[in-house]
């Protein structure tokens, strides 16, 4: 039986651990957070894409622990730790370095190590391999090493780990073969590339592609606002082209752990090659502008009804960074709330996935209760479980940043879309 180790049990690591366990593998799941370890041991999931039932059904096949020593018995170990930015917006590889050093101390001859964390091209070869080689073993000879980016899209149900092709690139042909055999257990289609660098850049290209296209449609939304053209009508019409166009929708800006962060790993790396990655920087700038644009749109909407933001009661609907998840990391809603408060608004929020926003000392208010005394309802994230029809009917004024009320029969002149 194959034993798989997973380091970092977050949005990426936990679903991977569960997939391998479901295929009959023994899984050693390591995290430095003892609360996560205890939660898994108790069969309680803290990730939307993994149900507690799934964890319980797997019985004893996932062994969660804070102890790296348990990884010594694994045939393969997948590293899924965070790769954030520092305060100066440079790659912060500290979690990866910590995890790799700890793994190096228990590394065994013949093991396959795969990095899954999103990072700049060169990380696997230049940063991970040397740290593991401090064990005295050589990468590609005594142990195998590869990079395989995770493509999980939290909240998505139409594509699963199994049905989403998995890209991978090993340090040597044998490393790639070992990794392909491993991922073949949980993925229907494995895509081999020639090197870890190609695999690392593949993931960044995917995320940069999204970031740039979102920025493009957001910039057009700011322009159409001035021109008096409905951006949604234009996006709908352009989407009827059967080829050469891909739909992206305007919104309040980018959030989550990936799009606001990952592209800057490449910008940083590009500077070593005397290149300024202008698309990346520009997309970041335009997307960071959107919460400001949305607040100024809210200010105008209130003004048009004879109200000022100062003293207005604003109900923010949806605060996670996207629909159907609880993740508020880098969510544009946080920026919007802080800007509205700065202007003197009284802000309440409703989000079925986010019970509390501790940094604002706020708790989710029941929707009906929130709408009664509200001057403006601001739809920031459109969770399908939220009754947007009710919002369009009840709220005095609605600013819909996601276009969900556009087709609503209840939408009135006081329902405005971005
Ligand atoms: N969240 C996504 O949708 C997504 C999608 C694709 C790729 N990624 C990438 O995958 C990586 C992980 O992202 P995530 O969203 O799962 O992060 P996460 O914060 O949800 O989980 C990371 C886990 O790693 C643990 N950890 C940190 N340092 C550790 C260490 N030294 N040893 C052991 N455990 C440690 C943390 O406690 C945490 O539980 C990142 O590089 C991210 O960019 C994320």
Question: Could you walk me through the main structural features you see in this protein, from its secondary elements to its overall organization?
Answer:
The relative contact order is 0.08. The chain has 418 residues and is an alpha/beta fold. The model has no long low-confidence stretch (mean pLDDT 95). Helix 7 crosses helix 9. The strands form three sheets. It has an eight-stranded mixed β-sheet, sandwiched between helices. The chain is built from 13 helices and 15 strands. It binds nicotinamide-adenine-dinucleotide (NAD).
Question: How is this fold's topology laid out?
Answer:
Blueprint: E1 3-7, H1 13-22, E2 26-30, H2 34-41, H3 52-57, E3 62-65, E4 76-79, H4 94-104, E5 112-115, H5 123-133, E6 144-147, E7 166-170, H6 173-183, E8 190-192, H7 196-227, H8 231-238, H9 262-271, H10 278-304, E9 313-317, H11 332-342, E10 346-350, E11 356-357, E12 362-363, H12 367-372, E13 376-379, H13 388-394, E14 398-400, E15 415-417
Parallel strand pairs: 1-2, 1-4, 2-3, 4-5, 5-6, 7-8, 9-10, 9-13, 13-14, 14-15
Antiparallel strand pairs: 6-7, 11-12
The structure holds nicotinamide-adenine-dinucleotide.
Nicotinamide-adenine-dinucleotide binds next to helix 4.
Question: Largest beta sheet, briefly?
Answer: 8 strands, mixed
Give the overall pLDDT as a whole number.
Answer: 95
First CA to last CA: what distance? 54 Å
Task: Give Rg in angstroms.
Answer: 23 Å
Write the element-wise H/E pattern from the N-terminal end onward.
Answer: EHEHHEEHEHEEHEHHHHEHEEEHEHEE
Contiguous uncertain segments of 5+ residues:
none
The helix/strand class is alpha/beta
Q: What is the helix fraction of residues, given as a range?
A: 25-40%
Shape: globular
Total DSSP E strands: 15
Q: How large a portion of the residues is in β-strands, by DSSP E?
A: 5-15%
């Amino acid at each position: 039986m194959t034993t798989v180790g997973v380091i970092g049990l977050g949005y990426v690591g936990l679903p991977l651990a569960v997939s391998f366990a479901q295929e009959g593998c023994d899984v050693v799941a390591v995290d430095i957070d003892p609360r996560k370890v205890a939660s898994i041991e108790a069969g309680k999931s803290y990730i939307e894409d993994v149900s507690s039932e799934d964890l319980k059904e797997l019985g004893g096949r996932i062994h969660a622990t804070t102890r790296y020593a348990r990884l010594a018995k694994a045939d393969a170990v997948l590293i899924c730790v965070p790769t954030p930015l520092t305060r100066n917006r440079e790659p912060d590889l500290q979690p990866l370095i910590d995890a790799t050093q700890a793994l190096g101390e228990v590394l065994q001859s013949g093991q396959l190590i795969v990095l899954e964390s999103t990072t700049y091209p060169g990380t696997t070869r230049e940063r991970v391999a040397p740290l593991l080689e401090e064990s005295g073993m050589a990468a590609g000879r005594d142990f195998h090493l590869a990079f395989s980016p995770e493509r999980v899209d939290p909240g998505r149900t139409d594509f699963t780990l199994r049905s989403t092709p998995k890209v991978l690139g090993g340090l040597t042909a044998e490393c790639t073969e070992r990794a392909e055999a491993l991922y073949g257990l949980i993925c229907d289609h494995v895509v081999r590339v020639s090197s870890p660098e190609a695999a690392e850049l593949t993931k960044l290209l995917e995320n940069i592609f999204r970031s740039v296209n979102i920025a493009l449609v957001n910039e057009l939304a700011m322009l159409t606002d001035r021109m008096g053209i409905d951006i949604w009508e234009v996006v709908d019409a352009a989407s009827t082209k059967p080829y050469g166009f891909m739909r992206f929708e305007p919104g309040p800006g980018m959030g989550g752990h990936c799009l606001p962060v990952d592209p800057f790993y490449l910008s940083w790396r590009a500077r070593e090659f005397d290149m300024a990655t202008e698309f990346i920087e520009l997309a970041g700038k335009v997307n960071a502008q959107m919460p400001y644009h949305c607040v100024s749109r809210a200010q105008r909407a209130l003004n048009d009804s004879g109200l000022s933001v100062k003293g207005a009661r604003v109900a923010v609907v949806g605060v996670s960074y996207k629909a159907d998840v609880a993740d508020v990391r880098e969510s544009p809603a946080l920026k919007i709330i802080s800007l509205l408060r700065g202007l003197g608004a009284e802000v309440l929020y409703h989000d079925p996935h986010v019970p509390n926003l501790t940094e604002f000392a706020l708790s989710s208010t029941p929707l009906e209760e929130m709408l009664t005394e509200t001057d403006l309802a601001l739809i920031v994230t459109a969770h399908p479980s939220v009754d947007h029809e009710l919002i369009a009917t009840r709220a005095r004024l609605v600013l819909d940043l996601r276009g969900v009320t556009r087709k609503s029969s209840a939408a009135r002149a006081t329902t405005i879309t971005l």
